[in-house]
Design a protein that fits this description.
Elements (H helix, E strand, L loop, with lengths): L1 H12 L1 H22 L5 H27 L8 H28 L6 H20 L6 H31 L4 H35 L1
Helix pairs in contact: 2-3, 2-4, 2-5, 3-4, 4-7, 5-6, 5-7, 6-7
């Protein structure tokens, strides 16, 4: 009974994290459509991602207010807030990227962009899996190895894309535009990595 109660309370503590992770999955899926459709319909997807970002900002505010008045949580209140804020930041950076694509209107989306956007989607899906495993370190480490593998692939894609960009005959203006878009993609991967590290740190504290 006591163990079941702990699991129930732990799930309740992490409810806002799961809520915002669900929204992050939706935002990352929309991002892949931005690049899959080669920039067409970007404005529509950008608006949808902005709506998700606004919702996530509201969750962050509500969580901060709720945690001020909560007691007896299985998790440190700051840890819960950091996770919610971290996932919200991922969405915010996805929004920034979609806005930039909408503003630049590139003539084409490179294969590296498409692959990086898909890697972001995969990382977010894995983060959704690892968060409930905070109290299950053995299972968590198995999933974390998958997360690190995707991150490693993403970094290699980013480096290759930048190298290829400046070895091509792309005009200086377009080169700067693509470099900025690649930077946005890489910053999303970095923020996902930050969230993964938070999960790992919280898991260590719980054991």
């Amino acid at each position: 009974m006591f163990g079941a109660k702990l699991i129930s309370e732990g799930a309740k503590d992490l409810a806002p994290v799961r809520q915002i992770t669900t929204q992050t999955k939706e935002a990352s899926a929309l991002l892949t459509r931005v690049f899959d459709q080669n920039g067409k319909g970007t404005e529509k997807y950008s608006l949808e991602i902005k709506e998700i970002s606004d919702f996530c900002n509201a969750v962050v505010r509500q969580t901060a207010e709720r945690l001020k008045h909560s007691f007896g949580s299985l998790f440190d209140r700051q840890d819960i807030y950091d996770l919610v804020l971290g996932m919200s930041t991922v969405v915010h950076r996805v929004e920034m990227l979609a806005t930039s694509v909408n503003r630049y209107r590139p003539r084409y989306c490179t294969s590296e962009m498409i692959e990086l956007a898909d890697r972001i989607r995969l990382i977010v899906l894995e983060l959704d899996q690892v968060i409930p495993m905070i109290n299950r370190p053995t299972e968590l480490q198995i999933r974390m190895r998958i997360v690190r593998g995707i991150q490693k692939e993403s970094r290699a894609l980013y480096r290759d894309a930048i190298s290829k960009l400046f070895r091509s005959n792309t005009s200086p203006t377009d080169a700067l535009m693509y470099r900025d878009l690649y930077h946005h993609l890489d910053s999303i991967v970095e923020e996902c990595e930050h969230v993964a590290c938070l999960v790992e740190r919280i898991s260590i504290k719980q054991t």
